[in-house]
Amino acid sequence: MKKAIIFALVAGFSTSLTSAAFANELAHGDANKGRTLSATCAACHGADGNSVNPDWPKLAGQGEAYIIKQLHDFRAEKRTDPVMSAQAKGIKSDADIADLAAYFSSNKTKLGTANKDKVSLGESIYKGGVLSSGVAACSACHGPTGLGNFAAKFPKVSGQQTKYIVKQLKAFKSGSRSNDPGKMMRNIAVKMTDAEMEAVAEYMTGLHD
């Protein structure tokens, strides 16, 4: 069991190191065109993708392929949200989606601040999981610094809004969000308590890549 966990952590570390290289291979959009198209996104996500409202995710620095997947999932109703479903369906073409993804991906994520009272538990879960309940370490997929794995379309979580992370974990747990391949996130979230979700979300917010 311990060997499997160590292997997963090592694998996650190695893939995160190569994700930046893969990002260039996956990039097909035009960031300059995406900047122009992003005007309608700014109200929720900020002009550069760094949202101020904790209910909305930061898109700045997010993996390009991940953004593209989520927008397509919203359009196809594989993922639903009262605001984003309509917004995604309003994007005229696949090329526009790629351009928007290229723009937001090219921007830098503004650093977040974690709640110090919850960081210790959050770090423990992020790096080592929760063995007693079978929760896997977040770092195995999202990398030791939260950079994510662009090639595998695992999102960047470092600096992300705490409230948004908790909301998504609860959505995966309830099954109201189900666009994770192989139920990867649902199988993890269903084993987590609210306190564990909040702690790991705080830790992710304070992570710096």
Give a written overview of the molecule.
With 209 residues, the protein is mainly α. The protein folds into 2 domains: 19-106, Cytochrome c-like domain (Cytochrome Bc1 Complex, Chain D, domain 2), CATH 1.10.760.10; 114-206, Orthogonal Bundle (Cytochrome Bc1 Complex, Chain D, domain 2), CATH 1.10.760. The protein has helices spanning 2-26, 31-37, 42-45, 64-75, 84-89, 94-106, 116-128, 139-142, 162-174, 184-189, 194-206. The chain is globular, with a radius of gyration of 16 Å. The model is unreliable at 1-25 (pLDDT under 50).
| Biggest pleated sheet | none
CATH architecture verdict of the largest domain: Orthogonal Bundle
Give the class-level CATH name of the largest domain.
Answer: Mainly Alpha
Strand content: under 5%
Structural class by secondary-structure content: mainly alpha
**SSE order, one letter for each helix or strand:** HHHHHHHHHHH
